[in-house]
Every structure is written in C-alpha cells, then in structure tokens.
Amino acid sequence: MMSEAVNQAEPFLVPSSVRGRPRVVALASGKGGVGKSHISVNLAVALSQLGRRVLVIDGDLGLANINVLVGVSPEYNASHLLEGVRSFEEVVVPYREHFDFVPAGSALAKLAELELGAQVKLMEALELYKRPYDYVLVDAAAGIGSNVRLALSMADEVLVIMTPEATSLTDAYALVKVAAKYGIDIPFQVLVNRVRLAGDAREMYGCLNSASRSFLGVEAGYAGYVYRDRVVERATREQTPFIVSFPSAPAARCITALARRLDGEDVAAEISAP
Ligand SMILES: Nc1ncnc2c1ncn2[C@@H]1O[C@H](COP(=O)(O)OP(=O)(O)OP(=O)(O)O)[C@@H](O)[C@H]1O
Ligand SMILES: [Mg+2]
C-alpha cells in the first residue's frame, strides 16, 4: 500500500546547495515532549547520509539535550561562544561525518531576553553564512517564549512538530500565532510525530491548517509524519540515534523520507505501517 500522506506531502524550498548558503530550519512545537530533539538528531543523520553538511544548534535547555541523545559530554557550549571566551571551533562538536552540533548553554536564554539584536548577535557568533554547512537545524525549546522566537527569527523555515493529541494542536497553533504576532513571516511545514496511522497525521495537519488559515491568514504546508515506534525509546537509552541503530525501523524510514523531501527529492516512498 502506498502511503497517501507521504505522497501528498508538499515540496520544500530549494535545496541549500542551489542557493549557496545554509538553509536554516527551526524545529518547534509549542508543546514540550513531542519529539523535537529526537527528530533534529535523526534528521541530521539522514541528511548527512545524503552527503549534506549539517549543523544542529541545541536551543533547548531541558533534560533531553542533543549531547545526551548522542552520548557526548561536551566541554564547552553556546554560552562560552556567546560570552566570547571560546571560539566556534572550540565549542562545536563534530559528532559524525557531516554532522556537527553546538551544545545548549544558558546564555542562549539570557540572550533571547534581549529581544532586539539577539538574532543578529547569535548569527554573528555562529558566523553561519561563512561556514560550509548545507543545513542548520535549530532544535527550539518547548513553549512560545523569547528563546523560541529567537530560533524562529533565525530560520528560513519552520518544521512544526505535532503529535496526535489535542493539546499538541492548541500549542502548535499558539506557536504559529506568536510568529504572526511578531511578524515572523516564514514558511511553516507540519510534521506529525508518534502516529499510529498515516491518516491521523493528515487529520492533525488539517485541523492546524484550517485554524491558522482562518484566524491568522497563515497557510501551513504538510511535511508528513513519523510513526510511533519503540526503537525511539531504546535509542534514547543507548544514546545512539535510532536511524543509526535501527535504520529499517518504521520511524527511521519516515525520517529518511523526510530528509529526502527536505532536500528537494520527489519521494514517493512507501512507508509501511509498523
Ligand atoms: N516517534 C516516536 N515514537 C515513540 N516515542 C517517541 C517518538 N518520538 C519521541 N518519542 C519519545 O518522546 C519523548 C520526548 O522526545 P524528545 O525529547 O525528542 O521531545 P522534545 O520535543 O525535544 O521535548 P522537549 O520539549 O522537552 O525538548 C522521549 O521519551 C522519546 O523517546
Ligand atoms: Mg528537546
């Protein structure tokens, strides 16, 4: 059976390699615990496997930081970079081939509170457009606070992560609303995580899109879904991305398809149900 939801997913923007600078994608949700960090890490691996150079910025100060998910204990973090005591080269962690990350630091939250100029200061510290990355994935924190707005304002596009729960819908809507309120006019693509049936993802997307279209005048695109899968929890315990340990698991195949679509491929992959 061909998965309709995947086949009907809308195309993303032009690949970065065509544009000559990194494409900055923020992963945000409003609601916490929906899978942003796991998706950031696994999507980064999938893109790196396509030969793309990826930088992940951990904008989340919660427990499941990127370094925990990949089992690395970094010496320095974004705070050292922003405070000017360490260089980008000292702070960045080369985790795998074509996959680097910047660990979270509390200075990010302080910087975000500055609001005006915070984005410029962060972009300057990261020197994003001088480095040879194809993609920069920003794993935003939960909520719709100033650090999330900072992540959104840096991005070329947003991947809104939802789950098939009503609270996820209201929080995702709040995220789109706050972006509209602050004049952040970038494309939104909805990815539904932890789905049992592909149809549930379409339904969640439809609800969010009709609300944001009617009340905010914002049209969100559909990025597809990731199955609810036991390998995600195992991978968390083993501190290895599930796409590395279990590449043929349903969740891993969804992420691979997402990476290919993000990278501009017209993927008509069959993602069979778990
Ligand atoms: N596709 C999935 N199938 C099963 N479990 C999942 C899936 N995606 C995420 N999880 C589980 O959901 C929990 C939250 O995941 P994760 O930490 O990535 O969310 P988050 O959105 O980054 O959370 P936070 O808002 O706290 O940063 C984890 O325990 C993870 O194992
Ligand atoms: Mg997280």
Characterise this structure.
It contains 14 helices and eight strands. By secondary structure, the chain is α/β, with parallel strands linked by helices. The protein has a single domain (4-262), classed as 3-Layer(aba) Sandwich (Rossmann fold), CATH 3.40.50. An eight-stranded mixed β-sheet has the order 3-4-2-5-1-6-7-8, with helices on both faces. Residues 1-7 have low confidence and may be disordered. It binds adenosine-5'-triphosphate and magnesium ion. The site of magnesium ion has 6 residues, from α3.
- Give unreliable regions as ranges: 1-7
Per the CATH scheme, the topology name is Rossmann fold
Name the CATH superfamily classification: P-loop containing nucleotide triphosphate hydrolases
Number of domains in the coordinates? Answer: 1
Helix content percent band:
40-55%
The ligands found in this model are: adenosine-5'-triphosphate, magnesium ion
- Briefly, what CATH class? Alpha Beta
What is the global morphology? globular
CATH architecture: 3-Layer(aba) Sandwich
Give the helix/strand class: alpha/beta
Overall mean pLDDT: 88
Strand adjacency order, main sheet: 3-4-2-5-1-6-7-8
Report the oligomer: single chain
User: Into which percentage range does the β-strand content fall?
Assistant: 15-25%
Helix-strand string? HHEHEHHHEEHHEHEHEHEHHH
- Total number of β-strand segments? 8
